[in-house]
UniProtKB/TrEMBL annotation:
Belongs to the DRC3 family. It is found in: Cytoplasm, Cytoskeleton, Flagellum axoneme. This is Dynein regulatory complex subunit 3. GO terms for cellular component: cilium. Transmembrane segments: none annotated. It comes from marine metagenome. PROSITE patterns: LRR (PS51450). SUPFAM superfamilies: L domain-like (SSF52058). The keyword DNA repair does not apply. SMART domains: LRR_SD22 (SM00365). InterPro entries: Cilia_flagella_integrity (IPR050576), Leu-rich_rpt (IPR001611), LRR_dom_sf (IPR032675). Keywords: Cell projection, Cilium, Coiled coil, Cytoplasm, Cytoskeleton, Flagellum, Leucine-rich repeat, Repeat.
């Protein structure tokens, strides 16, 4: 009985640590919002499979200074970024499917 209690206690203490360690797949909230809009998925966890479904993305007028995180959109073919403040486009070279920028 005591060992069962200890096992349950240990498990219950570890679960919050694992959940707290999860980082969002897209760190920039502006980019995440655009990805969610493209996917028509307003809530819930974004997965790698979700990101592979994104082929078009519009990020205009968002005051973005970098495109960090967009490299995860490996199937992206069309990217619209007007009226931002981009100073760093590192990562776009990884988007081998990109046809329009």
């Amino acid at each position: 009985m005591k060992s069962t209690f200890m096992a349950l206690l240990t498990f219950s203490l570890c679960v919050p640590l694992v959940a707290a360690d999860k980082k969002p797949i897209i760190a920039d909230p502006i980019v995440e919002k655009a990805v969610r809009k493209s996917l028509k998925k307003p809530t819930g966890e974004l997965t790698k499979a979700d990101l592979e479904k994104v082929t078009r993305l519009i990020l205009y007028n968002n005051k973005l200074t970098s495109v960090k995180g967009l490299e995860k959109l490996t199937k992206l073919e069309w990217l619209n970024l007007p009226n931002n403040q981009l100073t760093d486009v590192t990562g776009l070279e990884k988007l081998t499917q990109l046809k329009y920028l």
